[in-house]
Amino acid sequence: MNERYERGLARQRELGGPGPVRARAYDSLDDIAPDLPRLAVEFAYGDIHARPGLDAARRELVVLGALIALGGVEPQLEAHLGTALDAGLEPGEIVEAVLQALPYAGFPRVMAAMGVARKVLGARGLLPVRQVP
Length: 133
Fold this sequence. Notes:
Layout: H1 3-14, H2 19-27, H3 35-49, H4 56-70, H5 74-86, H6 91-100, H7 102-105, H8 107-123
Helix pairs in contact: 1-3, 2-5, 4-5, 4-6, 5-8, 6-8
């Protein structure tokens, strides 16, 4: 593989690896667009996520906000919620980040995102979430 791909894989490993959700998403494209996962690793992780200037947790907050605002991207949101936890965000911080999107993305998208957050946090045994002081 090329340097960008290797840099992207290294960044994913720093963040706890691609994880089962992202791996399933990548594997599901094998029969239609096998280059798409490679492009995602090269661009999203090798070019963008690996840039200096923000730590991984702050980058994941930005990603979460963008995904919540987009809506309809629950698999990607699930993967990035896991990455955000692996990057050091606390469950209460994630809940606050989702709530912060409310005035910008609206109730339907925030409620859907909170449902995905419940799923991810529950799977990790992190429920109930305590309020951030």
